[in-house]
């Protein structure tokens, strides 16, 4: 069991979306607790940094390879959906509503007569974009705030802790319902903004913790004694060693944000037409579940596979970076 | 003979290969006797002890040969259930780090009392009384109040005493102490070793003391077995080894101890590192580091030559070594 | 221990204030609080002004907040625009949601921990890989999709359950919705338990317990489990927030008239009193749940009590 003083508050890291982040947090925290820096020399004498070892492990991990390939595919069709879908997701023919699979339209038509296949493909762009942007925002905002609070400590740290507590007290879906329902714009930005707003505390807590751990390392004390300035300490010594847990959590978070966007869209407060989103499609399809389940199944399947790919990637990255499994 | 380990072989099968941790170890302990097993990390001393207790991690560890005779019966042929009954009741083990070896969420009294509840069928109340008695016996002040405390509330020395108390709760015939004082301050070390020796005398137990600290051994042990790379390289009554070692490794260990009359001279250290157990050097495992190594050492593995009735040395040149 | 409780309670207060203020601001400042009152169209300025005065909405926001909180402490959550008191809506909605959540938590704990222990002890074997894969799939499928699929399969195709839950919402009707609600959390509990058990299996105190000659079941339950479950218990507590969010979705799918349903109606009809009222109570519930979990943590892990 770890010898460091226990902080129960640290163990409580709910986003309200729950599970994935909390799990990743606790698992990421084990990453922080390894003493010493990530550099070392293996028996062959060649430098074995945490990163080169991790990359070597990742390359050999089939889970990583599969999920990375899937994600690559998803990113490509996000950027160029016309590569595999020739139609227009917004051009719909009411006469064909709810019809099933036909030549040229493998997934059939939805309630408005739109081609499900095309909409599913174009929906990838929305989901991936929202997921990536939200994660980037949360990661940057959260790491900077949390990292600085961890590094400087004192009053700023206390303020940040209170702030994160307050944001944590609001379950995410609840907050989304309340906040986004008053928003009328139908672009992706309110949704992304909201996710960053409620998501940053999670990352900031991880960043703060890992910066504090990194700060206590001997090589940081040594550098400080040699007269290194704060910014140099932060950039050259602390960040490379503190960033691993943040990467792990952020990668897994990507998957959950995609899931969250779909959930919010399903509830009607997320993205709105004419944005093409799987959540919207699933929501619309839910009333036709008896007669035309295909309208639901295809976007749902795409959603599940996308989220699965990102979570698997995050799992693989975490396993590779986890020093306990060495 | 209380315990006799005969030609024990233990391997660890890992992803990267097979590590041969114990390669033909023989030693014995009688009632009331203290055997000190000496060696560096990786010598196999702890693995042998764990094999005797039956607590080896069985994947990846595996006992691949030999016998462990306890009161004449081979433990390796026992069914797990029978073996479990022997554990704790007739042979017990004391571990190095008492803080991590004690359950952090159970009170000390509960952990001590457990022995009586499981092995002797006592009630919780009776077991609790016994626990207080045990704590008194190992001289923990205020035992009656402290019996409800948790391990983290005790100091290092007291925690080790609690481990000792747990080990001798059922008055076993054999105690194996795996580096019991390594994690303690020097003054506390002496106290704990004294306690152990006293209790051993009182209960006439056999004691196997595993350590890498030659200083601790001199007071307490009757005989010594020095291990290297999973083999016994020298075994002798304790004073004989200190007077004149018959193996270059033992000599190296003794020479490495700093002495007051060596002021101003460079400290001696055995050159090189212990071998990788997956690639033990052929012939005598110590040959890469041995100042006396000859060609035969690199090809022929030395058996335990009989130096005299009670001494053995696994060195082709033990005579030369004895004579300096 | 007592000091610890008091400290946590005091910490809770500013957080509660901060969170409810945030919600209050979000609802009243960002949106238009009286938007729903005049039907589909915008209110004409005179009526709007009058309504604002009636509901005290012309006062500065911080004053509105204080008035509101003052009322909350006397049990008055205001009146929904439909004329019903919000507390009335709560009294019918909360019991239903509580039943649903209880079912979900029971599933989460019982199935999750059991599976986690099994796979933690048999790491690497086929059952472990299968369960891991299953949990991964369950985690990746959002709750609403699971709900819709199960509704389709069990309710429509096979007719094992009624696709919608009746207004009484008895326990037996809530089994499948409860399972849906629990699904993602269950998967996490399984994985967390598995990791915790696998880690603790090789720890020194387990080795000592085996060396003491204790029977296997005692080693697993009394020594291994008690230590391994500590992070799991903590997780379950914080997961309550996720369950709340999931409840909204689940109630919508199965047409359960619980808190989520009322909240959703309130939002769609822009009934700000309802929304703020329910969310305030939910935040309070969440904070209390976290507090209880912290206390439970201290009960389970004596090292915390004396910190």
From TrEMBL, chain C:
It comes from the Bacteria. The keyword Transferase does not apply. It is found in: Cell membrane. Its main location: membrane. The chain crosses the membrane at residues 12-31, 98-119, 131-154, 174-193, 228-254, 274-300. InterPro entries: BPD_transp_1_N, MetI-like, MetI-like_sf. Belongs to the binding-protein-dependent transport system permease family. This is ABC transporter permease. It comes from Streptomyces prunicolor.
